[in-house]
Amino acid sequence: MRLNYNGLKDAEAWKKAGIELPPYDPQKLADNTRKNPRWVHFGIGNIFRIFVGGIADSLIRKGLMDTGIICAETFDFDVVDKIYNPFDNLALAVTLYPDGKTDKKLLASLTEAVKAQPRFGDDWARLKEIFTAPSLQMVSFTITEKGYALHGSDGKFFPFVNADIENGPEKCGGAMAVVASMLFARFKAGATPLALVSMDNVSQNGKKLRESVIEMSEQWYNRNFVPADFVNWVKDESKVAFSWTMIDKITPRPSEDVAKTLEGLGVEDMGIVITSKRTYIAPFVNAEAPGYLVIEDSFPNGRPKLEESGYGVYMTDRKTVNLSERMKVTACLNPIHSALCTYAIMLGYTLFADCMHDSDLAELAHQVGYVEGLPVVEDPKIISPRKFLDECINVRFPNPYLGDTSARIATDISQGLSIRFGETTKEYVARDGTAEKLKGIPLAIAGWLRYILGVDDKGGKYELSPDPMNAEMTKALEGITIGKPETMGDKLRPILSNARIFGVNLYDAGIGGKVEAIFRDEISGTGAVRAALKKYLA
Questions:
Q1: Residue 361 DSSP one-character state
Q2: Would you give the DSSP letter of residue 51?
Q3: Per-residue pLDDT tens for 44-53?
Q4: CA proximity to 446, closest of 346, 347, 519
Q5: Alpha carbon 325 to chain centroid, angstroms
Q6: Of 184, 182, 208, which Cα lies nearest the Cα of 197?
Q7: What are the helix (H) ranges across 74-226?
Q8: Rounded mean pLDDT of 333-360?
Q9: How would you classify the pairing of strands 110-115 and 69-73?
């Protein structure tokens, strides 16, 4: 059995292997989507394929959609060349349950993949064709937190952003510039309304997307690349909406065990690919069963009936989305992931599920979530924060079959610190005048800094997970030596006082000194990380 249009013809073989095929014709769907594009997605990695692709697949199966999703990639083009094109854009979705059972379903809802940069001429022309189609209703995104960033921690534009600003709409490369360029093409072709929907794990993700697209547009206006009318159109949310969302589905890297299982069932070429950009991806995607997607219902050109997919989609207002996102990102899920993953790496836990059985790390999770997070997070009503946290702690995180790694969770960790820890810290400052009573969050921040040193608690070395701040942070901590706490000096002060990193000056919040003390203890020698956890959680 091969994962392509031709390979689907032997339906009986797939059925025998326990893999559910779509009841619709994938080729017919792709043809119709090409003629009538309604949905484009940027950032075409694993969570998009199994969750967003699964939502679309469900709606198509139910007869509620007759087109699929066009997939656009601005960053890692190996994904298009090695995972989409060779498999006719098909994907195998494998759901991993805590009892060891799995569901296997073939998704054909992703109908086309384009490389979204001008240097790929045919793809660039095709993307413009899609964006200028009046039928296009929504553009969604899972490009990770760093995908929206135009500025470094120093407040200056990144070099690639400067290049995009100076080169204009036809020679851009960054995701935000590409989106602004496509919007300009749509504006010139009649300015049909459109919804841009960020589905990334970023609080107020729609606001961040809007701000970046507007800033890029204004920079081009200042250089006479675009007219003022275009900038005004982008700013008018009755014309270009930037819907806010909360998305949640733990989607680890592809599992070798799953690959072997699928090949054992007769599915060919299930090998995992590590791209030149260090994306781990495969023709299949494995993920947990739970999924949540809360969306602000702002779609000026219409939308699919997303809430009828059966995939945990809630259509609501902006306030409820924001509360749902804050619940997840500042209290119940992401801060616990970020707090534990660095310690898990330093303590030798490759699989994140294993660290949940470590009594010290379980206590850190309890402290960050139940003790510090829940008391200052507002209930969004549609989802109970305590029930959501209970599910994370008791069901989702300990799932031994999920195969999620501590290293994957640590990827790009610097980009979420201001939301995952800074927001809760600010809530305590607002409520009590200081956040000095916090224990879990200072431990989490100290753990991140200690992790940057690349030395585990036994003195062995490990490779840092990809992160745009790795080089900057490694340089800032240069000279600090395990076993010599005096080498710390005053190196942490410029970091902990940087509100661009943490969302607040941690000294002003009352916890900068505590983070320093924890870090000093954690670099005092081998075994010091474990000892510090016990000391400060006591």
A1: H
A2: I
A3: 999 999 999 9
A4: 519
A5: 13
A6: 208
A7: 78-79, 121-131, 159-167, 175-188, 205-222
A8: 98
A9: parallel
Q: What are the DSSP calls for 268-310, one per residue?
A: -----EE-TT--EE-SEEEEES--EEEEE---TT----GGGSS
C-alpha separations of 529 from 252, 346, 444, 483, 538 in Å? 26, 8, 12, 12, 14
Which own/partner contact pairs does 470-479 have at CB distance under 8 Å and 24+ positions apart?
470/414, 472/153, 473/414, 473/449, 477/449, 477/452, 477/453
Question: If 0-12 CB within 10 Å is exposed, 13-18 middle and 19+ buried, where does residue 135 land?
Answer: middle
Give percent above pLDDT 90 in the chain: 98
Tokens of 224: 């006479």
Query: Quick one: CA dihedral 157, 159, 165, 166, positive or negative?
Result: positive
How far apart CA 278 and CA 165 sit, in angstroms, is: 27
- Whole-angstrom distance, CA of residue 424 vs CA of residue 328: 12
- Per-residue pLDDT tens over the stretch 12-45: 999 999 999 999 999 999 999 999 999 999 999 9
Rounded CA gap, 43 and 355, in Å?
A: 30
Q: CA-to-CA distance for 478 and 414, rounded, in angstroms? A: 18
Strands (E) in 374-479, as ranges, are none
Picking from 388, 346, 340, the residue whose alpha carbon sits closest to that of residue 360 is: 340
The two structure tokens encoding residue 1: 């059995």
Question: What burial letters (b/e) apply to 479-507, b meaning 16+ CB within 10 Å?
Answer: ebebeebeebeebbeebbebeebbbbebe
pLDDT of amino acid 445: 98
Q: Which two tokens stand for residue 137?
A: 């209703």
User: Rounded to 5 degrees, what are φ and ψ at 288?
Assistant: -75, 170
**What value does the mean pLDDT take over residues 330-351?**
97
Residue with the two structure tokens 């490779």: 463
- The reported pLDDT for the residue numbered 152 is 86
